[in-house]
Structure formats: structure tokens, C-alpha cells
């Protein structure tokens, strides 16, 4: 079986910066909180229990720390308040680390990034996308999103159109009402390679990862000042990466690389 290309698996751990093993005896249990419906990261499995990449990551962390864990699903907008009201210990819900959210939570090192990418119809794919290439072209993005803000700031000669939902955005591209769309590469990878796209479209150009717009990466959130847990999570994630377990987990969920 051919080896997966290394760039298909994001990793943010530097082998030369191995975290010291923290005092794990101070951690007796971890109450993880995740979101209810953001497949393949978190969703309700056929047995009614939490499932998905984030859920499996949480379970692997608990095995590494050798501590019992619970995983509770809540609506995304309630997660921060739940942690700060001590209804959980750690949020593992694909939360992008931004300066705004850092004012409310502390975060582990990132365990993946959510890059932005362009998608065009298959007959108009570009190997590289630069601002001057999109002059006069209609480009769709979710209205009010960081992706729309990025386009308006850097792709000033494109005609940027905001859409209310992913469905509306993608349908506009399928129908040829826009030349390209720009958004979260992970969800777009699933759409491009799934049945809903009807094989219409493909990625154009490579990933955009500017942290000012798209966050510093995806980390696990803990209460401000909870360094004991934060350091334990960092140590466990490094160990999972070092052992190859993170790569196995990523490839199980993401056979198509968003990068």
C-alpha cells in the first residue's frame, strides 16, 4: 500500500521541543466537552454516543495520561460558558485559537489547522491563485466570515459575493453563478469529494493559513490558569504524535487532504 504523502497530515510538534512529563497525579479525571454536530469532527454515532475525530482524540489523550474521562456534547455557543462555570474541564471542538477567544480560555498547542482554499469548477482550475488572477471574477464566501474579510482585504479586484450558508455558496458554484468559492478547506474537501458536489469542482491553488484571519490553529481550551491540565494535554498530544497514533487517527477521518 503506498505511503500517504507527509503533507496530508498536519503536525505542529517539533521533535526537538519535547515537553517534560508533568505531574499527572494531580489529574484524576478529565471532563471533555465537544460540539453536537460538526462531522467528521464531532457527531452523534449510530449508538447515540459522541463520535468523530475530536472524540477519538480525547479518548486517546485519556489513554496516554491513564485517566478516566467523560465526553459531553453541547451546542458550540455554550461551550465557553460551560467551562467557566466548571461544568467541564476541556473543550475539544475544533475551536480556532484567536486573540478574542484567548481572553476567555487558555489553549494547548494546536493539533491541527483549518486552512482556507479556493474551489472552482473543474474546467477552470488554477494551479496558483493570486489577487491579480481574480480581477473581475465573481468569488463567493460565507457572509460575515473571516474568509469574506480576507477576500475583501487582499483580493480587492475580485467581485466578492456573500452567501448565507454553505449550501447556498456551493450551489452557486455548481450552477456557475460564481467563478470560485473560498472557505474552510476541510469541509470543502469533503464536499468536493462527496456526492453533493456531483463531481463538478476541484481545489484551485494551495492553502491559505494567515493566522490573523484563520486563527493560530485548533487547540484544546481549558479554564484560564489551569496550567496543570494544559501541560498534561500538551504532553499527551506530543506522545500520540511521536508514536504515530495521531497520523493514524487523521488518516482514518481524512482520506482526502485539505492541505
Architecture overview:
It is a single chain. By secondary structure, this protein is of the alpha/beta class. It has two domains: 28-112 and 217-253, 3-Layer(aba) Sandwich (D-Maltodextrin-Binding Protein, domain 2); 116-213, D-Maltodextrin-Binding Protein, domain 2. Helix content is 30%, strand content 24%. The protein has helices at residues 53-65, 79-84, 99-102, 146-154, 166-174, 185-192, 211-214, 227-242, 245-253, and strands spanning 29-35, 43-44, 50-51, 68-74, 90-96, 106-107, 116-121, 138-142, 159-163, 180-184, 201-208, 218-222. The strands form three sheets. The protein has a five-stranded mixed sheet with strand order 4-1-5-12-6. Strands 9-8-10-7-11 form a five-stranded mixed sheet, sandwiched between helices. The protein has a two-stranded antiparallel ribbon with strand order 2-3. Helix 1 (53-65) packs across helix 8 (227-242) and helix 1 (53-65) runs antiparallel to helix 9 (245-253). The two termini are 21 Å apart. The model is unreliable at 1-7 (pLDDT under 50).
Rg calculated over all Cα atoms? 19 Å
- As laid out across the biggest beta sheet, the strand order is 4-1-5-12-6
How much helix, percentage-wise, in residues?
Answer: 25-40%
- The class by helix and strand makeup works out as alpha/beta
Most strands sheet: 5 strands, mixed
* Secondary-structure element series: EEEHEHEHEEEHEHEHEHEHH
Helix count? 9
Coarse morphology = elongated
Please name the CATH architecture of the largest domain: 3-Layer(aba) Sandwich
Distance between the first and last residues' Cα: 21 Å
What oligomerization state is this entry in?
single chain
Proportion of strand residues = 15-25%
Specify the CATH class of the largest domain: Alpha Beta
Assigned CATH superfamily of the largest domain: Periplasmic binding protein-like II
Average of pLDDT: 90
Number of self-contained structural domains: 2
> How many strand elements?
12
Low-confidence stretches: 1-7
Amino acid at each position: 500500500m503506498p505511503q500517504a504523502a507527509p503533507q496530508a497530515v498536519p503536525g505542529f510538534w517539533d521533535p526537538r521541543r519535547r515537553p517534560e512529563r508533568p505531574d499527572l497525579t494531580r489529574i484524576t479525571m478529565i471532563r471533555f466537552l465537544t460540539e453536537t454536530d460538526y462531522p467528521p469532527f464531532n457527531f452523534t454515532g449510530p449508538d447515540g454516543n459522541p463520535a468523530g475525530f475530536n472524540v477519538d482524540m480525547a479518548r486517546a489523550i485519556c489513554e496516554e495520561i491513564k485517566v478516566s474521562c467523560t465526553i459531553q456534547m453541547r451546542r458550540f455557543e455554550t461551550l465557553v460558558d460551560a467551562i467557566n462555570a466548571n461544568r467541564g474541564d476541556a473543550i475539544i471542538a475544533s475551536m480556532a485559537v484567536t486573540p478574542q477567544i484567548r481572553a476567555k480560555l487558555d489553549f494547548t498547542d494546536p493539533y491541527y489547522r483549518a486552512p482556507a482554499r479556493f474551489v472552482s469548477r473543474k474546467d477552470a482550475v488554477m494551479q496558483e491563485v493570486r489577487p491579480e488572477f481574480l480581477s473581475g471574477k465573481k468569488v463567493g464566501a460565507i457572509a460575515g466570515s473571516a474568509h469574506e474579510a480576507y477576500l475583501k482585504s487582499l483580493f480587492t479586484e475580485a467581485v466578492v459575493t456573500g452567501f448565507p450558508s454553505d449550501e447556498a455558496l456551493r450551489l452557486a458554484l455548481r450552477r456557475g453563478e460564481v467563478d470560485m468559492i473560498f472557505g474552510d478547506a476541510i469541509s470543502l474537501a469533503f464536499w468536493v469529494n462527496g456526492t453533493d458536489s456531483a463531481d463538478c469542482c476541484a481545489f484551485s491553488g494551495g492553502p491559505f493559513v494567515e493566522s490573523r484571519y484563520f486563527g493560530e490553529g485548533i487547540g484544546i481550551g481549558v479554564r484560564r490558569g489551569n496550567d496543570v491540565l494544559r501541560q498534561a494535554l500538551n504532553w499527551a498530544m506530543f506522545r500520540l504524535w511521536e508514536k504515530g497514533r495521531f497520523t493514524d487517527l487523521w488518516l482514518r477521518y481524512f482520506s482526502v487532504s485539505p492541505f
